[in-house]
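Retro notes, structure queue

What went well: the backlog is down to a handful. What didn't: a couple of records were mislabeled last round, so from now on we paste the full input next to the output in the thread. Example, using Co2+/Mg2+ efflux protein ApaG from Yeosuana aromativorans:
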Amino acid sequence: MVQQVTRGIKISVETTFEGTFYKNYKIQYAFGYLVTIENQSKDSVQLNARHWKIYDALNNIEIVSGEGVIGKKPVLKPGESHTYTSGCLLTSPFGAMRGYYSMVNFTTTKKFKVAIPTFKLSAPFAIN
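Corresponding output:
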């Protein structure tokens, strides 16, 4: 598990390898990740958007941006957390992801970014 705190918002990420399959005659490696967003600040905040960079071992980079997470824009009061699962496909058995969430502080009405720490994706059978 990797963790990082930005402006009182703690991000924790755990990853899993889900398996392999063929898509368009190419092997794909499926990974899942569980993200917990915990508000350790004194203010209520809302997650409005996400921005990811997904890297694989073949130097391919995919950028994913969009509103909310899994169709939601959670509001977190002090001490509250939001957990969700998602996944990605890679064309190699190794990779990594990192990014940030765009959030708004309800007390100050200011927007801010919360860093999502870099986390590794690796298929267990490919590890030496």
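Agreed that this is the format going forward. Reviewer comment attached to the example: The two ends are 20 Å apart (CA to CA).
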